[in-house]
Specification:
2 domains; binds 3-amino-D-alanine; 10 helices; 6-stranded parallel β-sheet; 329 residues; globular; Asp_semialdehyde_DH; Rossmann fold; Dihydrodipicolinate Reductase, domain 2; 6-stranded mixed β-sheet; EC 1.2.1.11; threonine biosynthesis; alpha/beta
Length: 329
């Protein structure tokens, strides 16, 4: 299969290449794509060297699948051009996620909505993916009324510039700033820009995307997204009110048997998820599972995942795997 990786030289693009190799995705020809300034650069993948090409060239090469992680503007302009040439696009940007004609997919939850006609498929936001991975099976069993989520997000979600800012601040060097404020020894209560309602785009993604993926706009969601000086992954404190009561051990057991979820929850051994240990892994890790004793039918839990893997690259490639396995490409 001819596969294009659009944004191949970026953080997520590099993880996509790594995961494609790890999962032995059936690539017969790899087309690394990047902006004009990177055209001609060479990348090595699975022992072979490939030259980075521009977007127009990549469209003409007619890949069967194009994995995008190149920002919303690029996706808005180029995903339709790839699709018109017969390529199936799986896009990591927010450009298509809330488009009513486009599917927003976490394979373990709703891959069955995909058809041959889906030529632009949206990959959800990283913080949404890890949350719905844990909540979908619970929604199915107990029904969700309301979610209150606070996220503690890795600087890798912002990109290389943020990682460089933290490293500079460690060393006491003044360099380019990805954030308005220092991130070292700090927590910034802003991920992305603010919307009219006083919430950030990141927080509203958690609201809108969760409702779309779980197929229920009646699910009430409120979110606070915080940036912290961590690189391994995003962490989330989730408080979820169900329509009916539950048994905590039954919840733990349900999550334990959910593909793609690993329960790490034993207070006697101080076992709970942490980003330093989630880094480089594809599962979503859930712990601190406990009843919210302040109101009925409500549960607290702590959810951690590598935002560059299950939160982006791996989920994207799992969608591509589903398309191939079901002859949808
Ligand atoms: C962030 N979720 O962490 C965003 C990136 N896609 O900033």
């Amino acid at each position: 299969m001819k596969v294009a990786v659009v944004g191949a030289t970026g953080m997520v693009g590099e993880v996509m290449l790594q995961v494609l190799a790890e999962r032995n995705f059936p690539v017969t020809e790899l087309i690394p794509v990047a902006s004009e300034k990177s055209v001609g650069k060479e990348i090595t993948w699975k022992g072979n060297t490939y030259k980075v090409v521009g977007l127009a060239t990549a469209v003409e090469m007619k890949p069967e699948i194009a994995l995008f992680s190149a920002g919303g503007d690029t996706s808005k302009e180029w995903a339709p051009r790839f699709a018109a040439a017969g390529t199936t696009v799986i896009d990591n940007s927010s450009a298509w996620r809330m488009d009513i004609t486009k599917k927003l997919v976490v394979p373990e939850i709703n891959a069955s909505v995909l058809t041959k006609e889906d030529k632009i498929i949206a990959n959800p936001n990283c913080s949404t993916i890890q949350m719905v991975m844990a909540l979908a099976p619970l929604h199915q069993k107990y029904g969700i009324n309301r979610i209150v989520v606070s996220t503690y997000q890795s600087i890798t979600g912002t990109g290389v510039k943020a990682v460089q800012q933290l490293e500079n601040e460690y060393k006491g060097i003044q360099g380019d700033m990805a954030y308005k404020y220092p991130i070292h020894r700090n927590a910034i209560p802003q991920c992305d820009v603010f919307e009219e309602n006083g919430y950030t785009k990141e927080e509203m993604k958690l609201v809108r995307e969760t409702q779309k993926i779980l197929g229920n706009d009646a699910i009430q969601v409120t979110a606070t997204a915080i940036r912290i000086p961590v690189v391994g992954g995003h962490s989330e404190a989730v408080n979820v009110e169900f329509t009916k009561d539950f048994d905590v051990n039954e919840v733990r057991n349900l999550l334990h048997h959910t593909p793609g979820v690993t329960v790490q929850d034993n207070l006697d051994t101080y076992t709970y998820p942490m980003p330093i240990y989630a880094e480089g892994k594809d599962d979503v890790f859930v712990g601190r599972i406990r009843r919210d004793e302040s109101q009925p039918n409500t549960l607290n839990m702590w959810i951690v995942a590598d935002n560059l893997r299950k939160g982006a690259a791996t989920n994207t490639i799992q969608i591509a795997e589903y398309l191939v396995a079901n002859s949808l490409v």
